Amino acid sequence: MRWIRYSHAGAVAYGILEGDRIVEVAGDPFGGFEKTGETHALAEVKIEVPVIPPTFYCVGLNYTAHIKEAAAKFGTMPDLPTQPDVGYRSNNALIAHEENVVIPAGATKVQYEGELAVVIGRKAKNLSEAEALSCVLGYSIGNDVSERAWQKSDRTLWRAKNTDTFKPMGPWIETDVDLDALETRVRVNGTETSRFATNSMLFGVEAYISAISRYITLYPGDMIWMGTDGTSPDLRAGDEVEVEISGIGVLRNRFVAPAGNE
Amino acid sequence: MRWIRYSHAGAVAYGILEGDRIVEVAGDPFGGFEKTGETHALAEVKIEVPVIPPTFYCVGLNYTAHIKEAAAKFGTMPDLPTQPDVGYRSNNALIAHEENVVIPAGATKVQYEGELAVVIGRKAKNLSEAEALSCVLGYSIGNDVSERAWQKSDRTLWRAKNTDTFKPMGPWIETDVDLDALETRVRVNGTETSRFATNSMLFGVEAYISAISRYITLYPGDMIWMGTDGTSPDLRAGDEVEVEISGIGVLRNRFVAPAGNE
Questions:
Q1: Average pLDDT value for residue range A133-160
Q2: Which residue has the higher pLDDT, B80 or B172?
Q3: Quick check: is B262 in a domain?
Q4: Which of A71, B17, B123, B167 has its CA 20 to 30 A from that of B187?
């Protein structure tokens, strides 16, 4: 089942996507819903960010190849995490499928990171790894856009990762997913530039949810982006990036220059 | 003017605190409000966290003495920040004035950090330092409770800073503040353990708001905790910590052991 959040005639709603039709609901997949009887063609609506999370978790280093390549770039030794320490991203940066990533003034090394986005469906504390997936509503796709020069120069990741428009997410939430069957592919202007087995993580979804929930209450709508593998070219204004995860969908965003002299 | 968020007879509301009476409003200080005609005695209500922010910003190293003392403890060289790089905290950890901080199982070095909390009142982007305070609604008090062993051992600050109950905030938001006149005092079980000039920051409120808003849109209800000075003793179950900032108020919380075998 696919949950889509969209706007139509000035109102934002959740719906269930069946083929290319949206069955509108009142309410949402987190607090409860009922069908309104309205339907829309997918092509008639504007797709919105699937959820604005209470807390936006993101895993920084979770695939071996990405860690080794990042270390080589920064001139440091690769340091494989020994436990699942999660980080944070910020809602101001979220944009939807087909919205534009604005490359800010002064940015010199903007890159993509195609990621599996885990959406929490119910309140959870102290889950074991065996119980962990019971709190998951479904999965979406995130592009953890990053400015590598700022990532290296700044003390924290605030602008390197959270500049406005740097967190494309969507196009929807898929609830029926076989994690081991997923493959992530990224294309720039139609040419494939990354491909990896989505679930070949150092610490998987179950391990992260269990570890987080030992200290922290997870709430409906929280999400965890699970990190990326491989590398990205430096992106330029005009580039179109597609992150596809098999069985979920394709997240597509164009990178553009700022308007005026912003 | 003091904005207080409270619950009374099962409902959460904002009110304006006048002496020890609360003048209830419909709405809130961010989106607009009007007085309902209801009033309550402060002693009759439960004080709630003053705001649940869309994004919870927090400055890590912003006072010279704190940076030097932290470096000495961790056996590293003090590294004074050269630009205002902001970090993040997480809403799951917020608790109100007079609620309990639960020291989790396995924690060995839990400490307080008394901080000025800046609450954003209106949407802002690209503010100069001269314009920065125009987007501020007011100021509150935060206790950035930290587990120092986890802060040292983990790759990120997630559980060291964001374990459930680790972010006491309150008791209210004061809109009329002279930043240079503020003094922060922290007491443990009634004995003063820290005192510093609140505004003697490496980078002040104006500098942070201006720097953040160059890349990031600030939204109504966002908040920025401004860091702390000095050091804290290791806290134990039963300790009561009061963070006072002159002209704002006193934030009081007891530290307790987890219930049962949690």
A1: 97
A2: B172
A3: no
A4: B17
Domain count for chain B, please give it: 2
Residues B18 and B125 in one domain: no
DSSP string, B34-49: EEEEEEEEGGGSEE--
Same domain, B44 and B79: no
Is position A261 within any domain? no
Residues A7-30, buried b or exposed e (16+ Cβ, 10 A)?
eeeeeebbbbbeeeebebbeeebb
8 Å CB contact of B55 and A93? no
B65: confidence class by pLDDT, cuts 50, 70, 90: confident
Tokens 């008639």 locate to A44
Binary contact (B92, A212; C-beta < 8 A): no
Q: What is the DSSP string of B158-218?
A: HHHHHSTT-EEEEEEEES---GGG-EEEEEETTEEEEEEETT--SS-HHHHHHHHHHHS-B
Report pLDDT digits (tens) over B104-162.
Answer: 999 999 999 999 999 999 999 999 999 999 999 999 999 999 999 999 999 999 999 99
Q: State the alpha helices, DSSP H only, in B35-146.
A: 64-74
Check whether residue A150 and residue A41 sit in a common domain.
no
CATH number, residue A25: 2.30.30.370
Contact of A1 with A16, CB cutoff 8 Å: yes
Range(s) of the domain holding residue B236: 49-256
Q: Which two tokens stand for residue B147?
A: 């587990």
Please report, as a single letter, which amino acid is at residue A208: Y
A87 shares its domain with A8: no
Domain boundary among A14, A29, A48: A48
Q: Which residue of B has its CA nearest to A215?
A: B163
Contacts B54 to A, Cβ<8 Å: 91-92
Interface of A with B in 36-55 (CB under 8 A): 54-55
Q: Are residues B164 and B138 in the same domain?
A: yes
B179 and B96 belong to one structural domain? yes
Cα–Cα distance, A54 to A77 (Å, whole number): 35
Kindly state whether B90 is in contact with chain A, defined as any CB-CB distance less than 8 angstroms: yes
Res. A262 pLDDT band, cuts 50 70 90: very low
* Residue that has been written with the tokens 């908040």 in this structure: B223
Q: In this predicted model, what pLDDT tens digit does every residue of A77-87 receive, in sequence order?
A: 888 899 999 99
Tell me how crowded residue A192 is: count the other CB atoms within 10 A of its CB. Answer: 11
Q: Which amino acid is at A155?
A: R
Q: Cis link prior to A168 (omega < 30° from 0)?
A: no
With respect to residue B4, please indicate whether it lies within any of the assigned structural domains: yes
- CB proximity B163 to A under 8 Å: yes
Residues A138, A222, single domain; the answer is yes
What ipTM describes this predicted complex? 0.93
What does B133-175 look like in DSSP terms, one character per residue? GGGEEEEEEEE--EEHHHHHHSSSSHHHHHSTT-EEEEEEEES
Residue B260 scores a pLDDT above 80: no
Is there a domain that residue A262 lies in? no
Best residue of A57, A79, A85, A110 to probe chain B, by most B CBs closer than 10 Å: A85
Six-digit token string for B11:
């409902």
Q: Is the bond leading into B29 cis (omega within 30 degrees of zero)?
A: no
